[in-house]
Every structure is written in structure tokens, then in C-alpha cells.
């Protein structure tokens, strides 16, 4: 009996160390995934597509359709935006519509659940859609955000992936120096861009418990 208790005593610290390492890895992963969820909603909630948002936000939808971002898939086609491509020293006759080097910024949710995979399979996710700026709707649409409960709290929707208001970091995922069409001296003026190019803004009926 004394032998057994001795060996048990000598093994235990190793298990403590292993448990500590496992726990450390787990909490690192947990913190990381929560951070991702709050920053981009990446991989946690699926995308639902702009047609879904249109059901309740028709005015924003109609304005958005007229923006350059809504049509940003078009410029990947050969013979489109010829002048811009020449300036960037890119062959204007090349078809970039299946090029993985372009798709992450010219489509929505590229490679993610419900997001763009190819123009044949997911044409509704081409271009920069609502969810590129407001986060994937799979978690918040018709759960927190619904017609039955239009007074929902912003923080509850944000917990389910809503980005509101969209921050500069959201734009910077695409508006950065990795775009072949901008120089290293690229300047992105957030306020000016928001006013120039998203959709018109209509007053909401409710405050959703935010400071206004
Ligand atoms: C890192 C994100 C990113 C990548 C990768 C990217 N783009 Fe873009 N692209 C943008 C952004 C953002 C703009 C708009 C820049 C601005 O106005 O500030 C843009 C602009 C353009 C324009 C100019 C449109 C016009 O009307 O002047 C063309 C054409 C274009 N991109 C094609 C491509 C092609 C082809 C590829 C792949 C070889 C590509 N882009 C890769 C983000 C990206
Ligand atoms: C998924 C990538 C992506 C995100 C996110 C994104 N953009 Fe864009 N944006 C683009 C691309 C690509 C273009 C170029 C479209 C074209 O010219 O065909 C563009 C173009 C624009 C334009 C038109 C440029 C002009 O000169 O008129 C404005 C304005 C703009 N973006 C503002 C924003 C703002 C503000 C945000 C954040 C709230 C944002 N964008 C988020 C990819 C993105
Ligand atoms: C390029 C980024 C971008 C895209 C794409 C975008 N939005 Fe927005 N949206 C914003 C910004 C920025 C605000 C204003 C936030 C604030 O008040 O500061 C906003 C505000 C809103 C609001 C609040 C009311 C209002 O009109 O301001 C609603 C609702 C909304 N967006 C829905 C949509 C829908 C639906 C789509 C797609 C059809 C869409 N958005 C596409 C950036 C975007
Ligand atoms: C079933 C209806 C419904 C659908 C579908 C829907 N919404 Fe909403 N949304 C609402 C209602 C209701 C409000 C609150 C309106 C008000 O206060 O006037 C709202 C508010 C918002 C706001 C402002 C949030 C805030 O905290 O102030 C944004 C942004 C928004 N929606 C984006 C979207 C996007 C993006 C989609 C698609 C992915 C979408 N909505 C789909 C019903 C919907």
C-alpha cells in the first residue's frame, strides 16, 4: 500500500502540467474564437444573402444596389474597367472571376459558411453585400432581429454576429494595400467613405438601446 500511494504521488504533477497545457490551449482557442466572432463573425454564423435583408430593408437594398460595391464582381470580368486595369498593369482581357487572389475582396463571405464559393453556385454572394459590412445574418436575422420584436437590443444582435455600426476595421479587411489597384500610399478616410458610398441612411424607428 505505501508503494502505491508513493507512485500515485509521483505521477500526479505530470498530469497537472498536462492539464495546465490543455487548459491553456483551450482558453487561447476560446478567447481567439470569441474575438473573431466579435470582429468579423468569421466561421461562427452563416451568411444568408442580401435578398433576405431586402425583405425588411427595401430602401437600403435599393440604394445599395446602385453602389460600386454592389457591382464589384463585374470589374473582375474581361473587358470591364479596362482603363483601371491598364494603369495597374493588369491584362484587361484576363478573366478574374475565378481567381482566388481577387475573390476575397470582390465577393462576400468567400469560402465561409453560406458565403461566396463560385459565381455558378453562389451568384447571390458576388459583390460586397450587406453582410460584408453588417456581419453574417445567420445568427441574428429572424432570431434577435425580427418584425415581431422590432425593439430588440443592439447588444443582443451584436452577440449573434451583427456589426453595428460598422467600424473602420470592417472596411479595412478589403480597403488595404493588398489591393493591386491601390498604391502603398493608399489612404482610406473612413468618414468620407461612409458618406460617399454605402447606402443612404434612414432613421430607425427604435433606438435599440444605443447612445445616439
Ligand atoms: C485586399 C482586397 C482586394 C483584393 C485582393 C483585390 N481587390 Fe480589387 N479592389 C479592392 C478595393 C478596396 C478597391 C477599391 C479601391 C478604392 O476605391 O479605394 C478595388 C478596386 C478594383 C478595381 C478598380 C475598379 C474601378 O472601377 O476603378 C478593379 C478593376 C479591381 N479592383 C480588380 C481586381 C482584380 C482583378 C483583383 C485580383 C487580381 C483584385 N481586384 C484584388 C480590393 C481588392
Ligand atoms: C468585402 C470587401 C469590402 C468591404 C468589407 C468594404 N469594401 Fe468598399 N469596396 C470594395 C471594393 C472591391 C470596391 C471597388 C468596387 C468597384 O469599383 O467595382 C469598393 C469601393 C468602395 C467605395 C466606392 C469608391 C468610390 O470611389 O466611389 C466606397 C465609398 C467604399 N468602398 C466604402 C466602404 C466603406 C465605408 C466600408 C466599410 C463600412 C467598405 N467600403 C467595406 C470592397 C469592400
Ligand atoms: C459598405 C458597407 C455597407 C454595406 C454594403 C451595407 N451597409 Fe448598411 N450601414 C452601413 C453603415 C456605415 C451604416 C450607418 C451606421 C451608423 O449609423 O453609424 C449602415 C446602416 C444601416 C442600417 C440602419 C439604418 C440606416 O439606414 O442607416 C440598416 C437597416 C442597414 N444599414 C441595412 C443594410 C442592408 C439591408 C444592406 C444591404 C442591402 C446594407 N445595409 C449594406 C454600411 C453598409
Ligand atoms: C424579418 C425582418 C428583418 C430581416 C430579414 C432583416 N432585418 Fe434588419 N432590422 C429589422 C427590424 C425590425 C429592425 C429595427 C428597425 C427600426 O428600429 O426601425 C432592423 C434593424 C437593422 C439594423 C440596425 C440595427 C441597430 O442596432 O440599430 C441593421 C444594421 C440591420 N437591421 C441590418 C440587417 C441586415 C444586414 C439584414 C440581412 C442580413 C437584415 N437586417 C435582415 C428587421 C429585419
SSE map:
Layout (H helix, E strand, L loop, with lengths): L1 H38 L10 H5 L3 H8 L16 H6 L15 H4 L23 H5 L19 H6 L8 H5 L17 H8 L15
Would you kindly provide a written description of the structure presented here, covering whatever features stand out?
By secondary structure, the protein is mainly alpha-helical. It has 2 domains: 1-39; 45-197, Flavocytochrome C3, Chain A, domain 2 (Orthogonal Bundle). The chain has 9 helices and no strands. Residues 34-42 have low confidence and may be disordered. Bound molecules: heme C (4 copies).
Based on the structure given, which CATH architecture of the largest domain is correct? Orthogonal Bundle
Separation, N- and C-terminal Cα atoms:
71 Å
Could you tell me the number of beta strands? 0
Report the sheet with the most strands, covering strand number, pairing sense and barrel closure: none
Total domain modules: 2
Helix/sheet category: mainly alpha
Enter the CATH topology name of the largest domain.
Answer: Flavocytochrome C3, Chain A, domain 2
Mean pLDDT: 87
What is the highest CATH level, the class of the largest domain?
A: Mainly Alpha
CATH superfamily annotation of the largest domain:
Flavocytochrome C3, Chain A
Give the H and E element order. Answer: HHHHHHHHH
Spatial shape? globular
Q: Return Rg in Å.
A: 23 Å
Number of contiguous helices? 9
Low-confidence stretches: 34-42
The portion of residues assigned to helices is 40-55%
Bound molecules: heme C
Percentage of residues in DSSP E strands = under 5%
Amino acid at each position: 500500500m505505501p508503494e502505491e500511494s508513493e507512485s500515485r504521488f509521483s505521477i500526479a504533477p505530470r498530469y497537472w502540467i498536462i492539464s495546465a497545457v490543455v487548459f491553456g490551449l483551450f482558453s487561447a482557442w476560446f478567447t481567439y474564437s470569441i474575438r473573431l466572432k466579435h470582429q468579423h463573425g468569421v466561421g461562427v454564423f452563416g451568411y444568408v444573402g442580401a435578398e433576405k435583408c431586402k425583405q425588411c430593408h427595401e430602401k437600403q437594398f435599393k440604394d445599395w444596389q446602385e453602389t460600386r460595391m454592389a457591382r464589384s464582381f463585374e470589374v473582375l470580368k474581361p473587358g470591364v474597367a479596362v482603363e483601371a486595369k491598364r494603369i495597374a498593369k493588369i491584362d484587361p482581357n484576363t478573366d478574374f472571376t475565378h481567381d482566388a487572389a481577387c475573390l476575397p475582396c470582390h465577393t462576400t463571405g468567400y469560402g465561409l459558411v453560406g458565403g461566396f464559393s463560385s459565381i455558378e453556385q453562389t451568384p447571390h454572394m458576388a459583390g460586397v453585400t450587406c453582410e460584408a459590412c453588417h456581419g453574417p445574418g445567420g445568427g441574428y436575422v429572424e432570431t434577435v432581429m425580427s418584425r415581431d420584436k422590432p425593439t430588440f437590443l443592439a447588444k443582443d444582435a451584436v452577440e449573434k454576429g451583427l456589426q453595428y455600426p460598422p467600424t473602420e476595421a470592417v472596411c479595412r479587411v478589403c480597403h488595404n494595400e493588398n489591393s493591386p489597384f491601390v498604391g502603398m500610399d493608399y489612404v482610406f478616410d473612413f468618414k468620407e467613405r461612409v458618406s460617399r458610398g454605402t447606402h443612404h441612411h434612414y432613421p430607425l424607428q427604435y433606438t435599440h438601446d444605443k447612445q445616439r
